[in-house]
Amino acid sequence: MKYQSQSVAKAYFYCAMALFGIQVLGGLLAGWIYVSPNTLSEIVPFNVIRMIHTNALIVWLLLGFFGAAYFLVPEESERELYSVKLAYLQLIILMVGTLGAVGSYLVGIHGGREFLEQPLWVKFGILVAAVIFLFNISMTVLAGRKTAITNVLLMGLWLLCLLWVFAFINPDNLSLDKMYWWMVIHLWVEATWELVMAAILGYLMLKLTGVDREVVEKWLYVIVATALFSGILGTGHHFYWIGTPGYWQWIGSIFSTFEVIPFFLMMSFAFVMVWKGRKNHPNKAALLWSLGSSTVAFFGAGVWGFLHTLHGVNFYSHGTQITAAHGHLAFYGAYVALNLAIFTYAMPMLRGRDPYNQVLNMASFWLMTGGMTFMTFVLTFAGTIQTHMQRVLGENYMDVQDSLSLFYLMRFGAGAAVVVGALLFIYSLVVVRKREVIQPGPAQPGPAQSVAGE
Amino acid sequence: MAEILTKTRARNIFYGGSIFFVVVFIALTAQSHRHIVKTSTAGMPLTEQVALGKHVWEKNSCINCHTLHGEGAYFAPEIGNVMTRWGVADDPETAYEILDGWMQAQPSGIEGRRQMPHFEITEEEMRALSEFLRWADQTDTQGWPPNDAG
Ligand code: HEM
Ligand SMILES: [Fe+2]
């Protein structure tokens, strides 16, 4: 760690991991209710548990982004943060707001727009925190060296904070409400967050592979260009059936199909950089998470997104378990895994030591990724059957659900693996064990001459 | 990547193109806003009562179990066409009675069946909720859902 002020990131990452724990435990409980529906039904109903699950996810991902910005911007800008105090103040506001929101959900106080259920005072808290953040980070960047990475990162963060304004716009007209709601939801995960993801991934590749900055930065601009060119009009794939005009069926189908491209490019970028760079960075776990993130994001967002994005398909699959399958793998690959990549990379430095617990960390990668993949498959099977029985044959919703119980049981098993993986991950970063579970072999010098096949 | 695509060019394409798409998107959004107000939701007036009903829907976080026009949680049935499913889309009084009867009967307590909670809702709010759901049902959703099962 070159700059003292980078250490605020540590507090952000710890808080993020605590909420990550709450998120997956909430998810596991929700998955259990699908298996055994009477569980807690009169004490904490499903809708409350789901709010905690989704809200904790969104906040911890944002905390991770903010922490990542506080970690990498000083290095990129070659100067200390504008204000460490403001950064801590921002974190306190966000944590008080989040825990306040969770508490108020448990006593039945909440809004009713999906993902935006936070009571108004929490929404304002988030707004204030966002303003503090933008001020603090922009002042740092403006005074220092400007790079494409900070450029793209800041643009993503500025735009995502601005879009938060739509969290306050809730027209009485349900169709208008829905249309503006997507300006937060879709334009976050399929536009502005992609900019943040690409910037963090670019930074990780720069550090882990040792490839030239020029190369990384050119890739970066191409990736984010394809992200916004497709993602903005791609919003149309949510405007098929909510009262918006019919032309969105064409615009949405065409542009959201192009949304696959940035995810494909990010995956290609990560692998090409590793291939070209050949740097033997000691933090193998961070490299695994970076490659894993871009790959699973391509499948979760790109492939599973495309699966149901054409309006002819979406007419039947809209709002089924297929949507749930896609939502889970996309969030996991693109944003969860990317955050875990930067945590894995940064934590050893923030704690002033060499990378530690790498074997445990990598084991947690496979547990979580295996679990999420399995969950996605079973939900996709369940969703396919649901689509056919309910949307094609017209059978009653509850009857159809009854015939899917085996899939929900398997989903719970997959979720359990994810929870074990998540707890193992947190343990591997928080607790520094004296020795690796498996000792690393001796370092090998790179090959002197080119080897056949290169 | 070929040399014609320098970093500066890539950056400029990114900025210029993004601004272009933002402008197109804003124009289409404005047009869609007008379409919603004037056409697709114009089948039934958006009264105070409907607005109150929407508020009741939100206050009880119904969306985190149900879907409404296909959006929400996937734990409980679609509500956007429930009035059609019950055959009361054009009959406010019966719509209210069936909805009220349904809500009062929850939770069913049946072992192994997903449970809907009991909600404290006044008669005024229940009537408003019923009108909100009838209002949502008359929205022109381009023919979705494919059938009454929702
Ligand atoms: C990392 C990026 C992405 C994330 C995190 C993500 C997440 C989600 C989530 C959570 C939903 C459900 C929203 C709701 O509650 O109604 C959703 C819906 C949807 N997503 Fe994505 N998504 C991503 C990228 C994509 C991409 C690239 C595509 C298309 C190629 C896509 C296509 C869709 C479609 C069509 C729906 C609507 C499904 C329905 O009709 O029920 N998504 N996405
Ligand atoms: Fe989307």
Automatic annotation (TrEMBL), chain A:
Keyword Amino-acid biosynthesis listed: no
| GO biological process assignments | aerobic respiration; electron transport coupled proton transport; respiratory electron transport chain
Q: Name one Pfam family in it.
A: COX1
Q: Does the keyword Magnesium apply?
A: no
Q: Which residues form the Cytochrome oxidase subunit I profile domain?
A: 220-454
Recorded GO terms, molecular function? cytochrome-c oxidase activity; heme binding
- Keywords from the named record: Electron transport, Membrane, Respiratory chain, Transmembrane, Transmembrane helix, Transport
What name goes with this protein?
Nitric oxide reductase, NorB subunit apoprotein
> Which source organism?
Celeribacter baekdonensis
Automatic annotation (TrEMBL), chain B:
PROSITE patterns reported for this sequence = CYTC (PS51007)
Q: Which Pfam families match?
A: Cytochrom_C
**Full protein name:** Nitric-oxide reductase
- Where's the Cytochrome c domain? 48-137
Q: List membrane-spanning regions.
A: 12-30
- Keywords assigned: Heme, Iron, Membrane, Metal-binding, Transmembrane, Transmembrane helix
A GO MF label: heme binding
Q: Which InterPro entries match?
A: Cyt_c-like_dom (IPR009056), Cyt_c-like_dom_sf (IPR036909)
